[in-house]
Write a structure and sequence with these properties.
The chain is about 40% helix and about 20% strand. It has 33 helices and 24 strands.
C-alpha cells in the first residue's frame, strides 16, 4: 500500500553520503509503497532528479540479481508522416555505442557480466533493459547513462547503414516472410485516419526506412530521449542508498531535454464497414479479420472489454469456439482486445477450412454475436475471467523483471508506479459492465473487414474492396524538431573508466527433496515462498520414440496428448476449462520427442482443486470420434501451412537430410498427412492404455509447497498400476550426407531465405562431459550476440536479423546447427560466408580474450538461472531425467574455470568439419542459385517434403 492513505508523500531531499564530490543533484523521494500482510502490491520507492528523470527502486533479495529498465515515453506514435519506423530504428542505434562505450561493447560488457539484455519498441514507449548479477549494477547504470547523455557523437553513417539493413531484415523475418504477416499493417491503415500515428506499424514502412537520413534520426533522439521523458526502474538484490548514489553520479549531470506534452488525438470513427483485401504468398487458408474501435489502455472500460473478448472468443467455452472450431468450420476463431495509449481496437479473426466462404464466415460472426446477446454474461463467465486475470497478475511477479516491468509501465502511462488500479478494475467487474461495453463497442458498430486470400486459390473476399487509405488526408503535427541542439553533460569524474564489479554474490542452486513411490514413480521438488504459486510437471517417457513401434501411425503421440486436453469421463472440455480458469490454474498435456508431459500451474490456495482436475485428466480421459476428427483435421492443415514458410520448411527438411527422410526421429512426433489419416480412435485408447505407466513417470514440484504437503497432495499417484513398457531407442541416421553439397528448396517470392549448416555429432547430452564442453566451445562461434557468426552476418554485413549456432542433444545423439534467416538478395553470399566463418573458427580456434569472455559470461550467468518457478522446475527435471549428481553444477564450474585454449581448439577441429556438413537453403532460388554455381558444390533441389525434385 502507499503510505499516507494511498497518496504520494513529498519529502525533503535525502541526506546521502556521496561516493565522491561529483554529485550535481540529490534524488528526491516523492512516493513510497510498502507491503502490508499478503496484499498484492509491489513495494517500491519513487524518486525524481532535478533534470526530470524518474527513478523507481524495488528491493527483492530472493535471488542475487538485479534488473535495470530505462523506459522512454516515446514510440512510433511520435513519428511524423513519411518517417515511420524511427522509434524502432533508434532502439537499434542505442546499442551501437556512445562516447565512452565502443560499438558492440554494450552487448559484450553485459554478456561478460553474466547478464541478458535487450530493448523493445511499441507504439507508445521504448525500453532498454538488463538482468545481471547484483554485483554488476554500477556498470549497468554507467552504460545506460552514457547512451542517454553521450550518444550522438558516436552515431556514424556506417553504423546507421548497418542498422538500417538489420531493421529491414527484421521486417522481412517477422512480417514480409510469414503467412498473414501483413494483416496488422493493412488493418491499421484502414482503421485509423491518414496521418494518425497508429496507421503505420512500429517496424515502419520499407519506403520510409529507405529514405531516412542519419541526421533525421539524431533529431529524433534530441527531441524525445531527454531524462525528463524517461523512467529508470531498478529491482532486485540492491542497496537503496548505494543505488541512489550511483544514479545521481551517472545520470545527474545529463541536461534536461525539451518538454514533452501529452499527445491527445480524437478517437477514430467508422461510420460504415470498410472492406479491404490482399493476396498472401505464404497463406494456405484464407483469413477474415474484423476490427472495431476499442478503448485506450487506461480507460475505465478496459477490463470489461478484455472480459468480453475472453467470453466471445477465447478458449473452449467461448462463443466462437462453439460456432467455428468445435463443428470443424474453421482452424482459428478468436477475439482479442488491444489497448494502446491513444486508442484501442477489438479484433475477430476467423481462418476457415476449405469449402467455407469468407462471406459465410462474416454471416456466422453476426449469428454468433446474436447468440451471445441471447445468453448474456453468466457468473461463471465472470469467474473465469477474474480467476485467470488475477493469476496472470500474480505469476508475472515471479521474476524481478516482471515486477520492474509492471512498475515502469504504470509510471510511464499513469504517472504512478502502482499498478493496483488494473487489478482493482478486474476484481470489481460486473456482468452488467461486460454487456454494457458489448452494446457500446460491438453491437451494430462498423468495422474494418480484411480478407486475406491465398495466392493460387480461387477464394473470394467477404465483400468487394471499397476503401483505400489514400482516400483520406491528415495534418502533419509540429513537435518542435527545428529548435533542437545537442548539449552533453559536464561530469566531475572520469566517465571513460568502466566501473568495477562488486564482490561476487553467493549463488545457491535450489535446495531440493526427492522421493520415490512403490510403483516406481520418481519425484523431485523445491520449496520457496516468493509468490503464492506452484509449478508441477508430470513427464511420462516415450513420446515420439514410441512411434518407432508402428511408423504407419506416426503422429499418434502428439494426437494422444491433444486428445487428453479434451473431454474427461466426468467433465466436458468446456466444464474442465471453466473450472481451471476460475481457479486461475493450468493443466495441459503436450508431447515431445521422448515424453508426454502434463503441465500444471496453480496458486497455492487452489492447489487441492487443481490437482483434483489433474487427476481427472490423467486417469479418466474420454476419447471421442468427434474430437479425434477435429484434431486430425487441424494437424493435417497445420502441416500444409508449415510448408509455405521458409523457416518451417528449413527446420523440417534439414533434419530429414541429416537423419534420412524415413527415420522415425524426424516424423514420429508430428506425423505426416498420410500417417495422421490412418490414426483411429482405437489407436488412441490403446496408446494410452499401453504406455502410460508410473514406472515411466517423473514428477517435478517447484514453488510455494513444502515437501511434506506435496507428498500428501500427490498421494493419489500411488494407486497408479505398474506396467511393463519397452521404450525403444532412437534410431541412428540412415547414412552420411554427400559432402560438398548444397541442398535447396524453392519458395518463389520469399522475402528472406533460411540457411541451415551442420552435422549429426552422435554426442548425447551430459552435464560434465563432451556435450557440456561443446557448448563452451561454441559460445564464441554462435552461442551469444557477440559471437563470430552474429557479428559477421548481422553487425558487419547487415544481411540478417540474427545468426547463431548450437549443439543440441538428448539421450540418443545430437546435432550441430548454424542457422540464419537472411535477406533474399544476399543469400548466396551469406551461405559462403557462414561456411567460411565456421571453417576459420575450426582452423584458428578461440583467442585468449574470447576464452576469458566465455568463462566470465557463462560463469556469472549462473546467478539468474534459478529465479522463477519455471526455471527451478526445468533445472530439477533435468537432474531427474539424466540422473545428475547433486554437485553437478559445482563440477561444471570447475570444468569452466579450468578450460584451456588447447581444449577448445581441439574440440573445434574435431566437430566443425565444414567439408562434411549438410548445407540447406530455403528461399527464392532465382535469387541465390546463380551465385552458388561454380563454387565447388553440388547443387541438389528438394521439395518442401525433402524429396528429390526431378
Amino acid at each position: 500500500m502507499i503510505t499516507n492513505t494511498m497518496k504520494p508523500i513529498f519529502l525533503t531531499a535525502l541526506l546521502l553520503a556521496p561516493v565522491s564530490a561529483t554529485f550535481s543533484q540529490v534524488p528526491k523521494l516523492v512516493e513510497k509503497v510498502v507491503k502490508q500482510g499478503s496484499e498484492l502490491v509491489i513495494p517500491y520507492e519513487k524518486y525524481v532528479l532535478d533534470n526530470g528523470l524518474t527513478v523507481i527502486l524495488t528491493e527483492d533479495h530472493s535471488d542475487p540479481i538485479v534488473h535495470v529498465d530505462v523506459t522512454y515515453h516515446v514510440g512510433s506514435a511520435r513519428e511524423e508522416i513519411g518517417h515511420s519506423g524511427f522509434a524502432h530504428f533508434f532502439e537499434h542505434m542505442m546499442f551501437e555505442g556512445s562516447d565512452h562505450v565502443r560499438a558492440g561493447e554494450h552487448f559484450r560488457l553485459v554478456t561478460a557480466a553474466g547478464g541478458k539484455l535487450n530493448g523493445s519498441t511499441t507504439r507508445d514507449r521504448t525500453n532498454y533493459f538488463e538482468t545481471v548479477p547484483s554485483n554488476q549494477l554500477q556498470k549497468m547504470l554507467w552504460l545506460e547513462s552514457d547512451r542517454m547523455g553521450f550518444l550522438l557523437d558516436a552515431v556514424t553513417q556506417k553504423k546507421f547503414e548497418n542498422q538500417r539493413a538489420t531493421v529491414k531484415n527484421e521486417r522481412g523475418q517477422n512480417y514480409d516472410n510469414r503467412p498473414y504477416g501483413l494483416a496488422e499493417e493493412a488493418v491499421s491503415k484502414a482503421l485509423y485516419p491518414y496521418g494518425h500515428p497508429y496507421s503505420w506499424l512500429t517496424i515502419g514502412c520499407p519506403e520510409d526506412l529507405d529514405k531516412v537520413h542519419v541526421d533525421d534520426l539524431k533529431r529524433f533522439f534530441l527531441r524525445w530521449y531527454g531524462p525528463n521523458n524517461a523512467t529508470l526502474t531498478i529491482g532486485g538484490d540492491l542497496n537503496v542508498k548505494q543505488t541512489l548514489a550511483w544514479v545521481s553520479q551517472y545520470f545527474g549531470s545529463i541536461p534536461r531535454g525539451p518538454d514533452v506534452r501529452p499527445l491527445l488525438l480524437p478517437s477514430p470513427e467508422l461510420t460504415a464497414d470498410r472492406y479491404i483485401s490482399y493476396r498472401d504468398h505464404y497463406a494456405r487458408l484464407p483469413l477474415l479479420y474484423r476490427a472495431y474501435i476499442g478503448v485506450k489502455m487506461n480507460d475505465k472500460d478496459r477490463a470489461a472489454l478484455d472480459a468480453l473478448a475472453m467470453i466471445i472468443g477465447q478458449g473452449p467455452n467461448s462463443i466462437l469456439y462453439q460456432h467455428f472450431i468445435k463443428p470443424g468450420k474453421a482452424a482459428r476463431a478468436v477475439m482479442f482486445a488491444d489497448h494502446s495509449e491513444l486508442a484501442g481496437s477489438v479484433g475477430i479473426q476467423i481462418m476457415p477450412y476449405a469449402g467455407q466462404s469468407l462471406a459465410g464466415m462474416q454471416q456466422l460472426i453476426s449469428e454468433s454475436l446474436a447468440d451471445f446477446e441471447k445468453r448474456g454474461v453468466t457468473e461463471k463467465d465472470l469467474a473465469r475471467y477474474k480467476g485467470s486475470a488475477v493469476a496472470d497478475f500474480i505469476n508475472a511477479l515471479g521474476s524481478v523483471s516482471g515486477k520492474v516491468s509492471a512498475l515502469a509501465v504504470a509510471q510511464t502511462f499513469t504517472g504512478t508506479p502502482n499498478p493496483g488500479r488494473e487489478l482493482a478494475d478486474i476484481q470489481k467487474l460486473s456482468r452488467q459492465d461486460v454487456m454494457r461495453v458489448y452494446e457500446k463497442y460491438l453491437k451494430g458498430k462498423a468495422a474494418v473487414v480484411l480478407s486475406i486470400l491465398p495466392n493460387g486459390l480461387n477464394v473470394a473476399p467477404a465483400a468487394p474492396d471499397d476503401f483505400k487509405a489514400d482516400d483520406l488526408h491528415g495534418q502533419v503535427r509540429e513537435d518542435g524538431y527545428p529548435r533542437l541542439s545537442y548539449h552533453r553533460g559536464q561530469d566531475h569524474f572520469d566517465r571513460s573508466i568502466i566501473p568495477p564489479a562488486g564482490q561476487n554474490p553467493i549463488i545457491k542452486v535450489p535446495v531440493y527433496w526427492t522421493a520415490k513411490m512403490d510403483n516406481g514413480l520418481r519425484m523431485i521438488g523445491s520449496c520457496n515462498h516468493e509468490i503464492p504459486a506452484v509449478t508441477m510437471t508430470f513427464s511420462i517417457r516415450g513420446g515420439g520414440l514410441l512411434a518407432a513401434s508402428n511408423p504407419a501411425k506416426a503422429g499418434l503421440p502428439m494426437v494422444v496428448a491433444q486428445m487428453l486436453n479434451e473431454d474427461t469421463q466426468h467433465l466436458s472440455r468446456e466444464e474442465f476449462s471453466a473450472r481451471l480458469e476460475a481457479l486461475g490454474s493450468e493443466v495441459d498435456v503436450s508431447a515431445t520427442a521422448d515424453a508426454t508431459v502434463y503441465h500444471c500451474v496453480s496458486l497455492t490456495k487452489n492447489i487441492e482443486q487443481t490437482l483434483a482436475l489433474l487427476r481427472e485428466r490423467m486417469f479418466h480421459p474420454k476419447f471421442s470420434q468427434q474430437a479425434l476428427d477435429r484434431i486430425k483435421k487441424q494437424d493435417i492443415e497445420g502441416l500444409r501451412i508449415s510448408r509455405t514458410q521458409p523457416v518451417n520448411v528449413a527446420n523440417a527438411v534439414y533434419y530429414k537430410i541429416l537423419y534420412g527422410k524415413d527415420n522415425i526421429r524426424v516424423y514420429g512426433l508430428g506425423g505426416t498427412t498420410e500417417t495422421l489419416n490412418h490414426i483411429t480412435l482405437e489407436d488412441v485408447q490403446d496408446y494410452y492404455d499401453r504406455y502410460f505407466a508410473p514406472n515411466l513417470c517423473s514428477v517435478v514440484v517447484a514453488g510455494d509447497l513444502a515437501a511434506a504437503q506435496a507428498n500428501a497432495d500427490l498421494r493419489f499417484l500411488q494407486q497408479w498400476k505398474v506396467k511393463e513398457v519397452a521404450v525403444p531407442d532412437a534410431p541412428a541416421p540412415e547414412g552420411r550426407t554427400e559432402p560438398k553439397t548444397i541442398y535447396y528448396v524453392d519458395i518463389p517470392h520469399a522475402a528472406q531465405s533460411e540457411i541451415c549448416i551442420g552435422d549429426y555429432t552422435g554426442v548425447s547430452y551430459d552435464a560434465t562431459g563432451v556435450f557440456y564442453r561443446l557448448g563452451l566451445m561454441n559460445y564464441m562461434l554462435g552461442g551469444c550476440f557477440s559471437s563470430h557468426l552474429n557479428m559477421d552476418l548481422r553487425e558487419d554485413k547487415g544481411w540478417t536479423y540474427g545468426a547463431n549456432s548450437n549443439f543440441n542433444s538428448g539421450k540418443f545423439g545430437g546435432t550441430y546447427t548454424a542457422q540464419a534467416g537472411v535477406r533474399a538478395a544476399a543469400t548466396d553470399s551469406a551461405v559462403l560466408e557462414m561456411v567460411q566463418v565456421i571453417r576459420q573458427y575450426a582452423t584458428e580456434g578461440i583467442s585468449t580474450g574470447e576464452l576469458a569472455f566465455t568463462k566470465n559470461s557463462i560463469g556469472r550467468s549462473e546467478a539468474g538461472k534459478y529465479e522463477t518457478n519455471g526455471q527451478k522446475a526445468s533445472f530439477l527435471a533435468r537432474m531427474l531425467a539424466y540422473e545428475l549428481p547433486a554437485n553437478f553444477t559445482v563440477q561444471e564450474s570447475g570444468i569452466l574455470k579450468s578450460l584451456t585454449k588447447d581444449e577448445v581448439d581441439r574440440l573445434a577441429r574435431r566437430y566443425l568439419d565444414t567439408g562434411q556438413m549438410t548445407i540447406l537453403v530455403v528461399g527464392d532460388k532465382g535469387l541465390f542459385l546463380p551465385g552458388l554455381r561454380d563454387k565447388g558444390y553440388r547443387l541438389v533441389e528438394l521439395d518442401a517434403d525433402g524429396n528429390l525434385k526431378p
